[in-house]
Amino acid sequence: MIGAICGDIIGSVHEGAPPVPRDFPLFVPASRFTDDTVLSIAVACALREGTDFASALRSWGRRYPEAGYGGMFLRWLFGEIAGPYNSYGNGSAMRVSSIGWAFEDLDSVLEEAARSAEVTHNHPEGVKGAQAVAAAVWLGRRGGSRGAIRELFQERFGYDCGASLEELRLRDGFDVTCRGTVPAAAVAFLRSADYEDAVRNAVSFGGDADTLACIAGALAEAFYGAVPESIQSEALKRLDPPLLLELRNCASVFGLPLAPGL
């Protein structure tokens, strides 16, 4: 989850951009948290407090109305849509990483990931995207190999993770679907050497760069053990006090690898 938030902040200034060289600066003055961070915190808070996901998403989302939500989610957030709206967008997958840390058995991870998605993204593709990311985080933090994580994405969830980094940089368009985002973020992680490398891979694809980096960062944190302290320090100072406090609370409860002093 810390990896997801750091990835979101790093990718924020590249959202909507064409592919970028991998040597981009990780942080610039405009780097900021977006809806990916706010809603990741909301899901984790719901788990920690034992509240329902819809209430937590609305409570946290309404605190940050300018965070960059999609149009349908905004309508749901402020009450124009009461229930789920059959979305298969990547919002269900980008906010789910804490579930992979909060449970010790895969069945519980899959069940809870589905519940977190279905309050908005009840299309089968929206549910599947959330389950795949949460399950991969769970497997990575438990010592699963890179090959096992690739197999999970491909065999259990049907995502093709065979594309090269260059092929993903050359693809056209701003794809906000789970089917377009989740396997691309998985490849960014699977072809990485460390946390930073995974996030650089994801951002280099362009398009929905903050969400790609959010998901790739979540996978990389779980697999590599933690986000480097220097990256955590620079990213998390961009959170405001309520978000940072809730992150600290969740880190304590779920055993998230938060750097000392943060």
SSE order, one letter for each helix or strand: HHHHHHHHHHHHHHH
Category by helix and strand content: mainly alpha
The DSSP helix count reads 15
Anisotropy-based shape? globular
Beta-strand fraction estimate: under 5%
Domain module tally = 1
Q: Segments where pLDDT lies below 50 for 5+ residues?
A: none
CATH superfamily: ADP-ribosylation/Crystallin J1
Q: Judging by the overall fold, what is the CATH architecture? A: Orthogonal Bundle
Let me know the average pLDDT: 97
How large is the radius of gyration? 16 Å
The CATH topology, please?
ADP-ribosylglycohydrolase fold
Main sheet attributes: strand count, strand direction, barrel closure: none
Q: Tell me the helix content.
A: 55-70%
Q: Would you report the number of β strands?
A: 0
**What is the CATH level 1 assignment?**
Mainly Alpha
Instruction: Measure the end-to-end span.
Output: 15 Å
Descriptive account of the structure:
Helix 12 packs antiparallel against helix 13 (209-224). The protein has one domain: ADP-ribosylglycohydrolase fold. It is built from 15 helices and no strands. The protein is mostly helical and 262 residues long. The two termini are 15 Å apart. 62% of the residues lie in helices and 0% in strands.
Using brief descriptors, characterize the structure shown.
262 residues, ADP-ribosylglycohydrolase fold, single chain, mainly alpha
Topology, pairings included?
Elements (H helix, E strand, L loop, with lengths): L1 H10 L23 H15 L3 H11 L7 H7 L13 H4 L2 H6 L3 H13 L5 H18 L4 H11 L8 H6 L7 H13 L4 H10 L4 H16 L4 H8 L4 H14 L8
Helix pairs in contact: 1-12, 1-13, 1-14, 2-3, 2-15, 7-8, 8-9, 8-13, 11-12, 11-13, 12-13
